[in-house]
């Protein structure tokens, strides 16, 4: 059975009248965490992503605000709006992603299965499509 190219994962949370706590631990996502970074102060007209990873998986969390993520496995494309900090988007290896339509104050937290390695990126969409054949 083929692994899905993306999935929405519920992030465990502890609800409290003083504010909620979201928890990402070892069993929340299906990979070991090697890198964490975040996007912020992204203008609403800006575009981020525009690449695929050969080996890395990523988990995107809308810590604040909202944004759209286009995921594309070479055969299917899906636009997903992320706007709840207790739901994250797991993106499998070999999936093209584009992030856009950032709301004011949006913060996208990215948890990655690998450290930064330029050789792991496919940054040209036509090359990405060739890699899927």
UniProtKB/TrEMBL annotation:
Give the lineage.
Answer: Bacteria, Pseudomonadati, Bacteroidota, Flavobacteriia, Flavobacteriales
This protein's species is Allotamlana fucoidanivorans
List each copy of the Sugar 3,4-ketoisomerase QdtA cupin domain by range.
7-132
| Classification via Pfam families | FdtA (PF05523)
Question: What's the protein called, per UniProt?
Answer: WxcM-like domain-containing protein
Protein origin, superkingdom: Bacteria
Database matches in InterPro entries: QdtA_cupin_dom, RmlC-like_jellyroll, RmlC_Cupin_sf
């Amino acid at each position: 059975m083929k692994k899905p190219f993306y999935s929405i994962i519920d992030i465990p949370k502890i609800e409290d009248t003083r504010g909620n706590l979201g928890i990402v631990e070892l069993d929340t996502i299906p990979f070991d965490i090697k890198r964490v970074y975040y996007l912020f102060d992204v203008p609403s007209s800006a575009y981020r992503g525009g690449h695929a990873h050969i080996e890395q998986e990523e988990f995107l969390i809308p810590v604040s605000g909202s944004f759209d993520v286009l995921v594309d496995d070479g055969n299917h494309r899906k636009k997903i709006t992320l706007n709840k900090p207790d739901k994250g988007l797991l993106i499998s290896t070999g999936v093209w992603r584009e992030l856009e339509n950032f709301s004011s104050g949006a913060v996208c937290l990215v948890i990655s299965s690998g450290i930064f390695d330029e050789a792991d990126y496919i940054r040209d969409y036509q090359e990405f499509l060739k890699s899927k054949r």
